[in-house]
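Notes, Module 5: Reading structure tokens.

Key idea: the token line is not a picture. It is a compressed description, and you learn to read it the same way you learned to read a sequence, by spotting repeated patterns. We will look at two proteins. The first is printed below with its tokens.
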Amino acid sequence: MLKVQTGQIVEFYSNSCLVLVNGNNFKCKIQGRINLVVGDFVEIEPLIGSNNYQALVKKRLDRSSILYKSRENTKKPIASNISHIGILVTRSPKTGQDFIDKWIAISINASIEPFIIFNKIDSLEENAFSKEKNVYGNIGIKTFEISAKFLTHLSHLKEFLAKKTTIFVGNSGSGKSTLTSAITGKEILSRDLSNNQGVHTTSVSTLYNTHNMQLIDSPGVRDVSLDHLEPKKIIRGFTEILSFSTKCEFPNCNHKNDQGCAVTEAVRNGEIEESRYNNFIVLSQKKLNE
């Protein structure tokens, strides 16, 4: 009987995958209906006499984290065993704070640590992101200012990424492919920008092992929403609001116009950033109306 080995999926296709085992890649087919994504640790069994595949995936091991995309309350896994999510923010194309807050909520609910990367600083005046840095620094979110195109301050980001498994997210044109290429040394293809909008052309989810870190590039992050999260889970992504909500006079407070609401009082007092509060209400209300 051939020896079963343990490895990690570094590329995932529709019905097969590439598994890294002790520095060697195995092209694998999948046994049965095992639900797999890039980043999964799996047990594989080498195959004899197969022209197309070298091994068979027999079992998926436990995941430390899982990132989902959802639509109409149906969720589908994108990638697993991620430790950090890097949220790319740019002035052109403009990244709204609603996008940032959505991804912070998704990250925290997936037990993944979010951080923010302010990109394309080469085309901006100094301290262009000072407001956002204050808003998110005050709630403990780590931030970086870089130019992926010109490699500005990239060494600081690489130091932070060491020994972590990270996926970058951002609007089209935010520089995800440029940043991944700059860090990995691999050419990550992205179509030319048109009308200030980029188009993600990655068709295969890939995990890169490079410079003592792991980076995941996946086309699935384009469609991620909060559809699979209930309002009581959405508030977990707004830690400062969650903290004040425990002081509300009534346990079923809607944090909008209820008497004795500690959250709205904190907004009035400047203890909760108004933009964060507004985004929380919009996201929560959307779920209640569904």
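Here is the second protein, with the sequence above and the tokens below, as before.
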Amino acid sequence: MIPLYARRRAVNLFASSLMFAATCIGLFFLAWILWTTLKLGMTAMHWDLFLKDTPAPGNGGYGLRNAFVGSLILMGIALLIGVPVGLMAGTWLAEYGGRSRMANLVRFVNDIMLSAPSIEIGLFTYAIMVDPMGHFSAISGGVALSILMIPIIVRTTDEMLKLVGGEMREAAIALGAPMWKVITHITWKGARAGILTGILISLARISGETAPLLFTALNNQFFSTKLGAPIANLPVVIFQFAMSPYENWQQMAWAGAFVAIVFILTISVCSRLILQSAVKRS
């Protein structure tokens, strides 16, 4: 009979081997995707990509300016809506809700929203905004993206505020500071690095979303900044150009994917650096 200790070591070695193999497989495909995007995207980069709008089919033009500007507008709308709502909701959970039934229910629903498919968020926004309005618009696209941002910001804000020591709150209250001042001057300040990291992570999360925008902002071949009309955006343009039979459109799709990956990687690295600097200071 195999001794218990030897059996445990064997099981541990087997589980560790499976985890290592799974990690290697995941890293292999990640490296493959990144390398393919970088190789094909960098060769397709050109200044006209940022200076000219998307060309008509078959004319050999080159440009994604309207898509870049449209994506920035959509992300700006999402930030204006998602950051205040997520920050306030997360603050209520940490500072007022505590472990009450209502707070636990909100956390449970928020966790469900974290894993909700983005296409369902697009359908929901279509039903409450696009269908009543009768047309696609940048506003509805920004709202759909903000709904994807809010659960991440809520969860991050809630967790980061819990890490702020209770002694700081008690000291401020003992000095006669009202609760709103304790939150804005003590807890938010103490957790600002973590909250900012959550906002950056949520921004990286929405920057490559395509499905919600197909139901809300749709697309626009021309340059437009009208919030009440369909607007061009990089994810949908990449989706459409990648499936096209035109070689210049396919090259622009790879170039757009390269720009999107660089943007997401930059945001991810910045968020990690901010969090690490905050940990070192503490």
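Summary for the second protein:
- The CA atoms of residues 193 and 275 lie 6 Å apart.
- The chain has a mean pLDDT of 92.
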